[in-house]
């Protein structure tokens, strides 16, 4: 924590939220104390939300890692309703999604933010790390642009009683938009689940015959996503996104 006090609190908070929303690892459990300290200093979050986040950090530190990882996979990789890929909530599998990711990649590159070739640019923890390198005005603008996605994701995760709902809720709170979640809570109650065995079988059947990418960019992006999903589906160990530690200034990400 030596260098943490020298960095803007918003930068540190975004990195903490990114780590909490990423695939759980032993490193995350070991860093729980540092994460709790940073959250406790984030006075832009309501006290009750700070407490809930800190309690979750402690539960993560005390939990069984394999169980935490299994719960994460069940929550985020067995259906698209809670996907952490931002553009999936906006564009689905349309060609527009591929172009949106190409545009976001260009934004990253212009800012000197490097990605591993296997990582999708709209992966929310990665996007938060990018935001942690940007000026406060840019952070507010970007969070404002995705607030409807964050609100819907919060409502869906709350419906599944997942602690992870605290992350998008905290992001909304940073821009004073947490009230937007209310309008989505009633909507998600009646939503059909897309993580049932029947729904998953249908999705995988569709994926197996999807060979008509409209462009080379679309094909590459689909391949990257397919590798990520296949690794999770078959239980292959993946390398987590390296969310920068508080003292790490270099905006570079290693792929999952």
Main features:
60% helix
Quick one: biggest sheet? Answer: none
Radius of gyration: 18 Å
Q: What are the secondary-structure elements, in order, as H or E?
A: HHHHHHHHHHHHHH
Count of alpha/pi helices: 14
Strand content: under 5%
Shape descriptor: globular
Distance between the termini: 25 Å
Percent range for helical residues? 55-70%
- What number of structural domains do the residues give? 1
Low-confidence stretches: 1-6, 211-256
* SSE class: mainly alpha
Structure description:
The protein is mainly α and 256 residues long. The chain has one domain. Helices cover 60% and strands 0% of the residues. It has 14 helices and no strands. Helix 1 (9-21) crosses helix 3, helix 1 runs antiparallel to helix 8 and helix 10 runs antiparallel to helix 11. The longest helix is centred in the last third of the chain and has 18 residues, at 216-233. The radius of gyration is 18 Å and the shape is globular. The two termini are 25 Å apart.
Question: Quick recap of the structure?
Answer:
The chain has 256 residues and is an all-alpha fold. It is 60% helix and 0% strand.
Per-chain topology:
Blueprint: H1 9-21, H2 26-30, H3 32-41, H4 47-62, H5 65-76, H6 88-91, H7 95-110, H8 124-131, H9 136-145, H10 147-159, H11 166-174, H12 182-189, H13 197-208, H14 216-233
Helix pairs in contact: 1-3, 1-8, 3-4, 10-11, 10-12
């Amino acid at each position: 924590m030596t260098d943490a006090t020298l960095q803007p609190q918003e930068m540190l908070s975004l990195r903490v939220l990114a780590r909490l929303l990423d695939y759980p690892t032993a490193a995350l459990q070991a860093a729980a104390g540092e994460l709790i300290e940073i959250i406790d200093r984030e006075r832009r979050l309501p006290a009750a939300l700070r407490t809930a986040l800190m309690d979750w950090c402690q539960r993560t530190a005390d939990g069984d890692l394999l169980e935490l990882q299994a719960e994460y996979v069940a929550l985020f990789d067995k259906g698209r309703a809670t996907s952490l890929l931002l553009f999936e909530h906006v564009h689905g599998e349309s060609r527009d999604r591929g172009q949106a990711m190409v545009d976001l990649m260009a934004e990253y590159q212009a800012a000197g933010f490097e990605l591993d070739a296997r990582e999708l640019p709209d992966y929310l923890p990665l996007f938060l790390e990018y935001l942690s390198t940007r000026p406060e005005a840019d952070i507010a603008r970007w969070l404002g642009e995705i607030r409807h996605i964050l609100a819907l994701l919060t409502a869906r995760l709350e419906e599944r009683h997942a602690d992870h709902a605290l992350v998008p809720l905290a992001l909304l709170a940073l821009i004073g938009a947490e009230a937007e979640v209310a309008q989505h809570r009633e909507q998600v109650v009646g939503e059909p689940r897309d993580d049932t065995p029947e729904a998953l079988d249908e999705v995988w059947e569709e994926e197996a015959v999807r060979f008509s990418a409209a462009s080379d960019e679309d094909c590459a992006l689909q391949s990257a996503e397919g590798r990520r999903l296949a690794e999770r589906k078959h239980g292959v160990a993946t390398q987590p996104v390296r969310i920068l530690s508080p003292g790490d200034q270099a905006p570079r990400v290693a792929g999952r």
